[in-house]
Amino acid sequence: IEASHDAEMRSTLADVEVTGSGESPLGETVDVNGHFRQVVDLVSESADQLFMAAEVNRLAVAVIEPIPFTIQLNQPNAFLAPDGTLDLQIDVEREKSFRGPVSVSLPFLPPWVDGAESVLIPGDQDSGLFRVRALPQAVPRDWSICAEAHAVPDQPADNDEASESPRSMTPSVSVVNPVRVASNLVTLSIRPSPVTGRLQASAVEQGIPVRVPCHLNFEGSLPEPLTAVLAGLPNRVTAREVQLSSEAIRNGAAEIEFDVIPEPTAPVGTFEGLQVHIYGEMDGMHMSWCADRSGEITVCRTGELFRDDSGRPLTRLQALRQQNHEPKEN
To answer: What per-residue confidence (pLDDT) applies to 197?
Structure first.
């Protein structure tokens, strides 16, 4: 809903009717229509207890004084993948009379997509980035989203001189009129991840670095360069990030190795759920994908890790049998 600059300032209770078309469970295209309906809580308590309510079928609409800023949500030039992230850019256009900060939120995100509660765009900046994250359960399809913003009071410095300054005595626009404004609608596309991979299970000894292989596959057009990061490692175990070459990305596959560095006091045991994240940027916008989240690493005490001639980790029993030249178990 948008009012023109010469709209009359008044209010009304509008009878809203919605029409459209959709797909039925049987796959048929059907026309749908409906009217506005809202349950208003009159007397409520904690834990979602409702004692008295009223149902209304009219939408309250009011045209008020102009707000000294507008916001625009830029159409993303990339898609969001399940188990990935994407930056959305929001631009603020302020009138000369207002240079205060603006708080921006995304009130209606698709199912299984989340982000920060809000992003603050300072008064000396005209744009900000809002990072959204899709969980693995996110449904691939196109979704319409918008941004919502309101002015925020300037926060003076915490000292006597600042508190007595003329600026701190002047009320902010947001204090006088804390009205929320909406942006335009844009399409957020959720598509399958263009990056998949497999991290090889590995074993390390406390205090001894090791290289862990990982196979990656790429599909479609991707930004260059890309960075691979190994996440989910146990405490006091780190891994260096890996820069992916442009040639590997264009060829559609890459074999990389993570340098895993356990400290001498790293916890001993088998740790599952390691993740391989791929990060990149397109036109200054950050994006990421999860190539694998089924990695596994075993940390052994120093001197207790045995390997065969190919480097494969062995248990104590397997190492003893190999030493005695006994047949190995299948």
So the answer is: 94
